[in-house]
Design brief:
Number of domains: 2
Number of strands: 0
Oligomer: single chain
Order of helices and strands: HHHHHHHHH
Shape: elongated
Structural class: mainly alpha
Helix content: over 70%
Radius of gyration: 40 Å
Distance between the termini: 115 Å
Number of helices: 9
Length: about 240
Amino acid sequence: MNKKRKIEGFIWIVAGIILILLLVINSPDKSSNDNLFSLILMFFGKMTWFLGLSAIVYGAFVFFLEKVNVTRGKIIAFIGWFLSLSLILIRNSVLHGNPLSKTFIEAGRELLSYGFNKQSGGVLGGVVSMPFYKVISSSEMGILLIVFMIVSIFFVVKDFIEFGYEYIKEWIRYSKSDEYKEKKRKLAAKKYAEKLKKTNYKEYQKQMLKEKIINSRNEKLSFEISKKPKENFCKRHKFILTRN
């Protein structure tokens, strides 16, 4: 079972990486309209980046943690996150373009054109934004979309937030326990002993070097002292012979 989960996670990671690499290599303005990648890019627009990164993150969790609880609520929250971000991209395109028409058909056609240019929320975002064509450019709609996206993100990562909270709480509790304090004291004592050992070894090396230098100097002086009487005797003997 664990092996199957690891294979599943690996497949998700590879799929996400391939999608990201295709986005990096093939820029939207250069990609043709006759391949599968172009159709994906046309349908999802910039949200293709979101899909690729999501696949990598999900695959990493499945591969390393193996136990990832994917509930219906999380799937709905993820879809809400995806659609709200897609609508935000469409809204930004509308704000930077011409005002939408007043009729539903014309406004819908204009929203779809924003989706088809691959630089916005995609065709899916254009279709979803059609019912909101009258208010999509309003500041209230922008705030509502951001709030909805934040709430969706919270429900997607809620389990990880709870896990992080429990981990921090348990770590704080353990750090206050006697067991942790005893281990910390022993570790500090071990580090101090190692430091003292290194210091003593350095002092020992210094002392040995000092003694070596002193012994070398003493040997040299002894050699010089033993050499001088012989030289004096030779000089004196030579002086006597010269006088005679």
